Amino acid sequence: HADAAMYAAKGRGRNNFQFFTHELNRLANERLTVETAMRGALERDEFDVHYQPKVDHRRRIIGVEALARWFHPELGTVTPDRFIPIAEEAGLILPLTTAILRRAFAAARQWNRERQTPLRLAVNLSPQLFLGEDIVPHIAGLLSEAQLPASLVELEITENVFLGDGERAIAILRGFKALGCSLAMDDFGTGYSSLGYLRRFPLDIIKIDRSLVTGIEHEGDEAMIARAAISLGQSLLKTVVAEGVENQAQFDFLREQGCDEFQGYLLSRPLPYADFARLLDAETDRSPAAA
Ligand code: C2E
Ligand code: MG
Ligand code: MG
Ligand code: MG
């Protein structure tokens, strides 16, 4: 926003200097408002978590992704794409993620008690948090507090993690592997870093970004790019997950290409705790005949 405002101001001369300062002030105020509201919401434990299922090729639920949700009485719904970066800048990403993980770990523990087949839990870690101090022991502590086995947890990170000190990122990834967690590359196909990290870093899962899934059912360039991304993941022996699957034609295409897991509105939107619990109940998981 600020860049756009500056260019606009340059183009239109001196009068626009005022416009520019106003615009900057407005943005700074808006950010401060969100930041202040966020501190309050954290104190009152108002951040919520929604749960979106991941299914296998037979549409059986095998996992769930925890997604942060925030409704503020005055600001309304604030989306994670907006509040996560603000939390990072305000130094609030650790308490925020801790609140999210506490809820999600407790939910996963509960659901896994009631099931025969394990339900894996995926959570998102922002780059700043991931690369910050002592993240591995912190998450180990939350896992033991929740009595959730690390083997049920997938940590989703993005390519940005690899832009800085690669050795440090590798050490942290190894720490999580030693703990027993799985590691997933989220939003695969949207980043700017080289593909070399796929070989160098101990990742288990690649999540093909929604932008690569859009349009694949029309057998054009989109289909070719998605195919290439899937086969790259397969060649490297990663579990390949497709996100943003919105219709049956996309699901069929992805299944035919050998995707292992599927996530998207076709299967289910992210749901509040109780609704997701009902979705699990409705499945035939408990009946031995289902296998
Ligand atoms: P993500 O991890 O890639 O999550 C997938 C996003 O796509 C979610 O948006 C989900 O609601 C949406 N989605 C799922 N299926 C479909 C579909 O079929 N069509 C469309 N159009 N969208 C679909 P959401 O919940 O708004 O989250 C956006 C991003 O915010 C997430 O992308 C993730 O990067 C971040 N995020 C969410 N929760 C957390 C969190 O607890 N911690 C951190 N660090 N980041 C989070
Ligand atoms: Mg994710
Ligand atoms: Mg993603
Ligand atoms: Mg995304």
UniProtKB/TrEMBL annotation:
<feature type="domain" description="EAL">
    <location>
        <begin position="31"/>
        <end position="284"/>
    </location>
</feature>
<protein>
    <submittedName>
        <fullName>Bifunctional diguanylate cyclase/phosphodiesterase</fullName>
    </submittedName>
</protein>
